[in-house]
Structure formats: C-alpha cells, structure tokens
Design a protein that fits this description.
40% of the residues lie in helices and 19% in strands. The protein is built from nine helices and ten strands. Strands 1-2-3-4-5-6-7-10 form an eight-stranded parallel β-barrel. Strands 8-9 form a two-stranded antiparallel ribbon. The termini are close together.
Length: 259
C-alpha cells in the first residue's frame, strides 16, 4: 500500500497544492476532474503541463474523482452525465491511474423501480465502456453495507466496477467501518483515509482529524492487508478550520501503520 493525499482537502490551487503534497513525502495524489481539470476544459497543452507538474514533484495520480451535481440514478440529463463520466475515464487513462471515483447512490429496494433501472443502465454503460478502454470505476459507497454492495455489483457481467472505500461514509450511515471491508474482498480499488467520532447523545457522527476518531486504524490497515489490498490509501479531510495542517498530521499518523 502507498500513501497519498486528496488535493481538494488542502484548499489550495493546483500549482500550490502539488508542492505542498510533495513536502509531505508521499507519492500519490487524488485530483478532482472539475473546473479547469474537467476533460471538457483541459486542453492538450493543459494535459501535457499537468503531466509535467506531476513529474516535477515526483507524484503520480491515484485516481480522478468525478464530482456530479446529480447521481447516476437521476433521470435529469442522465445521458449527458454518462458521457461526461466517460470523458473523465478517457482522461484517467491518458494521465495514468486508469481509475475514476464516482458517488454510488443507495441501492433501490425495488429492483424494477425507475430509479433502480436508471442506475443499472448507467452502470452497465459505464462498465462496458471501462472494460473496453481499460479504465475502472471506483464507486464511493456508504449508504449500504458491504455485502449488499458486493451482491449488487456481482449482478453485472463487467470487470471494471469496484469500490472506493471511505470508512467515514460507512460510519455516517451506521455501518462498521472495518468489518464491512471483508465483504468487499477483491472489489476495493481505492481507499480514502478519514476519521469520525460518533456522538453518544444522538448517535450522529462528525468528521474529525485522522487518528482522533472512533476508527481503530491499526485494525483497519490490518484488514486491508488481510484482503490483499495493494492500492493507495489517500488521506482526505472534508471539514475543519485548518485542513492543510490536519492532512499533514494525518499522513504522519498513517505512515506509522502503512508499510
């Protein structure tokens, strides 16, 4: 396993953020395919410059995150949304990681409902495209338990559909962050390292700096080893008043356990 950093967590523009990541002595960085880095706006010259910047700071992409205004189970502009994800998959292939993170909606209880059918159609189209051109999708789960996600994804006869595993997403929806890893053996493509603490009063959870929450990280990393995960573990922080400081400390914390 290698440690990386989610650039969006630093709240810095690309040209300031990459050297900040490099100073943390990590080799991987996760970028958002958004704004100037969206495939529609990133020109051939911009793509060359991005590759040169990564090379300058001795960094490699762990994955491209594909933020979406609506989920893949929404009817509005679904065709355009699928085409956009495909262009991000093309960009991920070109830039190296061949891995795209997409939010995974809650699995519909009724498999023939309109929302369920839309999500199945989208995943099938993207899965077939990914298999054909060599880029995988890491679906960012959290709403459903690991075994439910596993059983659902196994209904698709494609090889490129996997999981982006963020333990906080599982905790926020009442699932055990470590135990659910076992159900997804062989399906985890990418891991985000975040932490959260569950409030005893109302059982809600809030994100906290890495190592300050309820996740037992030695056990979590040990479980990743047990399921033979060999990808990136990317430190991410979505909240807080000093996210750069929190991510820097998080990298140091995680390095003590990830070999």
């Amino acid at each position: 396993m290698k440690i990386g950093v989610c650039l969006s967590s630093l709240k810095l523009p690309l040209r300031q953020g990459l050297p900040a990541v490099a100073r943390m002595n990590v080799k991987g960085v996760q970028l958002d395919a958004y704004g100037d880095l969206s495939p529609e706006r990133l020109s051939d010259t911009g793509r060359r410059e991005l590759r040169n910047l990564l090379k300058t700071y001795d960094l490699e992409l762990t994955a491209l995150n594909c933020p979406l205004r609506l989920g893949i189970d929404a009817a509005e502009n679904q065709e355009a949304r699928i085409e956009h994800i495909k262009r991000v998959m093309d960009l991920a292939f070109e830039l190296g990681p061949r891995l795209v993170i997409v939010q995974f909606p809650k699995i519909a209880e009724e498999p023939v409902s309109p929302r369920a059918m839309l999500m199945r159609e989208a995943l099938l189209a993207l899965g077939l495209y990914g298999d054909r051109m060599g880029t995988s999708l890491a679906l960012e789960i959290g709403f459903d338990a690991g075994d439910k996600v596993r059983d659902y994804l196994k209904t698709f006869e494609v090889g490129c559909l996997g999981v982006n595993y963020d333990p906080v997403n599982l905790i926020l929806h009442g699932h055990d962050a470590t135990k659910n890893l076992f159900s997804l053996t062989g399906m985890v493509r990418h891991v985000n390292a975040r932490d959260a603490r569950v409030m005893t009063v109302n059982l809600s959870a809030a994100e906290v700096p890495l190592g300050a929450g309820d996740i037992e990280w030695l056990g979590f990393v040990g479980t990743l080893t047990a399921i033979e995960y060999r990808g990136a573990v990317v430190v991410r922080r979505d909240t807080g008043s000093n996210q750069l400081e929190d991510v820097t400390a998080g990298v140091k914390f995680l390095r003590r356990m990830v070999i």
